[in-house]
Design a protein that fits this description.
Blueprint lengths: L3 H8 L26 H25 L4
């Protein structure tokens, strides 16, 4: 059985890996799902947006991604 906490433990010390655990079940970010969790969906969206903006900023500043 899949265990989120075990995955987090396996990834948390990897180079260039950032892990976030949010409340919800599979489908938490789908507004049409019965499992929708608005707070977690918004947090996930903004974390993704921040990641993309930071990645593009790094690429534009030195010409390559990390």
């Amino acid at each position: 059985m899949f265990n989120v906490d075990e995955l987090i433990l396996a990834l948390e010390n990897k180079h260039n890996v950032e892990v976030h655990k949010l409340n919800g079940q599979h489908g938490f970010s789908d507004p049409f799902s019965l499992k929708y969790n608005e707070a977690s969906a918004k947090k996930a969206f903004y974390q993704m947006l921040f990641f993309l903006l930071e990645t593009f900023r790094r690429i534009n500043s030195d010409g390559k991604a990390d």
